[in-house]
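User: My collaborator and I are trying to settle a disagreement about how two of our proteins should look. Neither of us wants to argue from intuition anymore, so we agreed to look at predicted structures for both before our next call. Could you fold the first one, then the second, and keep them clearly separated?

Assistant: That sounds like a sensible way to settle it. I'll keep them separate. The first protein:
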Amino acid sequence: MPDVMGTLGRLVMGRPTGEFAPRAKPSPLRIRIALPLLAPDALSSVAYAPDEILLTLAAAGLIGVSFSAWVGLAIAAVMAVVIASYRQTIKEYPEGGGDYAVAKENLGPLAGGLVGGAAMVDSLLTVAVSVSCGAQYLAAIIPPVEDHTKAVAIALVALITLASLRGLRALDNTVVVAVYAFIGALGLTALVGGIEILTGTLGPSPADGLEVIPGPAFERGLTGLAGAFLVLRAFSSGAVALAGVQTISTGVRRFRDPKPRNASRSLAILGVACAGLLIGTLLLADLTGAIFVANPAQELRYTSGAPVPTDFHQDPVWAQIAQTVFAGAPPVYVLVTALVGFLLILAASSAFRWVPALMSMLAQDEFLPKQFYRRSDRRVAAHGIVTLGAGSAALIAVMGPSVTRLIQLYIVGVFLSFTISQLGMLRHWNAKLPLAKTTAERRRMAGARAVNALGLVLTAVALVIVVITKFTHGAWISLGLVAGAFWMMVSVRRHYRRVDGELKLPKGGDRTDLGLPSRVHGIVLVSAMNRATARALAYARATRPSSLEALTVAVDMARVWELRRAWDRANVPVTLRVLDSPSREITRPLIDYVTTLRRRAPRDMVVLYIPEKVVRHWWERWLHNRSAARLTSRLRHVRGVVVATVPWQLDPSDAAAANPRETGQ
């Protein structure tokens, strides 16, 4: 019979790539290749962070929007401290592992599990947010896509999942080219925009003639407690720009020697690029008049006082900036917008590389099922990839392709991981500092500890701000998801520990588990006297049990009498026992009989031999009685009982030989 699941797997994943080491290390790469491979997650966060800052500040009108650059500076300052902190992590953990390795080693396995749970939740949101934002940029250049963004986003997730399962090496080359093209496109936009501003040739933006209507609490601008709270909300929304900067600390092994130095340099370069892009985008948005609000029909109006129509189309911030800067060159605008959207989609694909590796580490430490630790014959962690793809698609289907709604869930887990990691590094330095042998070494460690202590304070404060300002906007859902993931992983770990403890051989003393049973009682389950039954009887007799009998259940007395006559004609040297079944049920009488035997002789072993017909086609399985499978599943929970299936492979040629009339012989 063909392997249907195996054939389906080959169609999805492709042919095996040959023999390989299950835990083979990736080839080391130069900075110019490794950095762009690890950068899409961080760069994509910077691409949609300005939208969320402007959207939040829009509640205070144009005065609030003009404050966006200051919020960007505050986020850039926190980013600088976080990057300096992770440079210390890279130096101390040159084998990578990131937040999970730091938390597990310094704070214990449960802290590592909490970081792992937060990282898994964030991975789902990374894919969902990046793909949803990418679909919005696609709609900016192809307007009909706007009405089908959910279907487009789910289709993109499916394509990325398929490409990741097939382990396409060309995807890495695509990521490298796309990252450099993305940076070049945004750099060109900033350069041309700056020249147009200086020369006074910058044309009107798509938002020309529109103004933001301030909310009732912000008619006087960002004053009072409401204004401070709004700024903090804008900070917590824009802080998503920090997501992904820790990816390099996880992939230190991707760099050439000296790995720590190259990874640290790459992290610094990435930090400067992200901070520059964030502040530059906000400045350009302010200078070009780009507007981004949650509900244009309610929050925008024309300067003439006319309302904005309900079908008003609003592009993401970078698309508005590019449309303004390249108003005289529409193909360049389309190219820049397409590159931003393409990078966002590739950022989702980068999550499909590092998240399965994280799941593999969690499975190795027994926080996840062991299936996540194994790789397929395509050298990819298929279980982790499928789980990430299915979860992300489900999230988009439930929440919709709304970046604003998904962002509310996203940032909590990011700063939770940051905070726990910084706490772990602080404890790492506290344990290592007393062991320093020289004054210079002690001074270096003290400086590194100060950096991580500052990182702990800032990330903890940012986490509190995020939880308070975003709690009613969806942060509680993220906290619940992280708590649920942590509880699930702790339960999996507890299960594995319990199983290991029960299966562990005793150290001396009682060794009853290693002894032989007193007697072995063999039972052959029969329903008819045929070739499958004959093979099961022969196999059972070959094992030479202490006693052997055949067993059938009297569901149909006519068939029982027919079986007895066939049994006598075949002169089978095994006793046939018939069990009564007034309710015409097969499973219950057999289980009662077996448990009775076990109760009478607890030190005996009962071996039940079940003839099994193996059909050629998968659909033929449903044409045969499934009582043997139900019986096997029930008897698995009875101690001292072994179920052995004896297969008989059905072949049409055998049937023709046994029935000459059907072949005309």
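The second protein, kept apart from the first:
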Amino acid sequence: MKNTYICPSCKKEFDWDDSMEETLIRCPVCQTEMMAPSPILTKGAVVGDYLIRERIGIGGMGEVYLAEQRSMKRPIALKILHEDLIKDQAYLERFYREVRILAQIEHPNVVSAIEAGKDCDVYYFSMTYIDGKDIKRLLDEGVKFSEFEALRVCCEIAYALKYAWDKHGILHRDIKPANIMLTNEGDVKLMDLGISKKVKGGEDVELTMAGMMVGSPQYVSPEQAKALKDMDFRADMYSLGASLYHMLVGQTPFPGDNAMEVLARHLDEPVPDPRKIRKDISKNTAELISIMMAKRKEDRFASWDDCIQEIKDIMDDLSEGGKLVTSHIKTGKTRVGIAIGKVAVEKKKTGQPIMSAKMMKVVIYVLLFTICLAGFSLVIKKGMADAKKDRAKNLFNEAVKFIESNPDPSNFRKALVMFEAVQRVGDADCAAAAKGEMDKILDKVQKLKNKKIQDQKRTALEELKKQSFEYEKNGELDKALAVWTAYKSSGPYAKDFDFEISKAVDYLNRKKKVKEDGVD
């Protein structure tokens, strides 16, 4: 399972597959090694009305899990606040503010909030689970967006931001590919309103310190980079333009080795032309990005409506270009019909036969050819679909055979990769079967992790008892007591050994008192 981490050294986000037993992970940017954080919640845990399935993301404020809402029998995304933040009232306010803001947004391109709550010491809120991938992950995986598709995604997000601004006066302030989801059905969803700000309607729930820049450096507007207070919807417009540029050319508009260099380029350098990297981008789209990313907000579009209209106009131009080609392919029948009509009119005027036998044969041949071509196309498509299905079945059988003949845990990763390939290639049935096998493997991995932890606990307790016994045997009861009390204050499994520690301390204290009283 790939999770998103934030490097504590360079502050860059990166993905890491933590489905295996790895204790160290490495930042691909600065190569810093760090401990892989254990999930706050384990699979099968219950929080409120939610049954935890697996962790699907890690962020600065908390973790996100795929869970099942038991009352509704549906998958949801559950955000959990980090334990070390729940004592900070400012973080708690920001956590609940995200829910309050999200609850105000009812739009088809924005994820829907379900509820927020607290279960013991766990603060959570649930939202609609989006079955898909974010744009950043797709770009990292090498997906290349066509100009039309990139504009479509941009237009859908623009509609969501227009609604948030016009209806509720809300700025998102962190528009970037990682916060834009593309579902398996192709729908576009805006994610993560964690640093949004409500600036209209007499309410300002800003929690960021004065002078502190918010947002992601690679997509941040100049006014955000300067931490200006007087911002409006055009800050999000700039970030959306930068995200569109990234989708089109595969890299951010102003790359740099560190955040300060990137911010300086946003402030000082002209907007790059995407056509220098990708020649097939239209001039209109290049100009659209230039306007959306203008340094001065006054030089950007005056409203979201103007921006959306420009995007739609460009899409229409691209679509019309495609329709010309399509109509050229499809108009074999249409042109034949026009030709027949013309001959019929000429017959009425001249008194000649409606159509010669030669012309009739040509028309019939063209019609038959068109029908055959359509039938051949259907046969080819069906053949390709069948071949793809057969390939998925073969991959599935190979994966099952591999894991059955190689049950050692060191082979689990390869087996998961094989089943992931089945999910990509196969139909819904193959994908479901592959997921079932992957769940079995992940269950084995979790059991191995649990067994390892239990073994570590057992070894640690035995070592404590051994040290204590050695001191006790030599009459050094204070040292024996120190072994247990020291572990109680800083030992990794102190909570788990609470009963054994208390029991040992009581025993040693009683023995010490007996010794001090002079009783053998």
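Some points you might bring to the call about the second protein. The chain has 13 helices and 15 strands. The radius of gyration is 32 Å.
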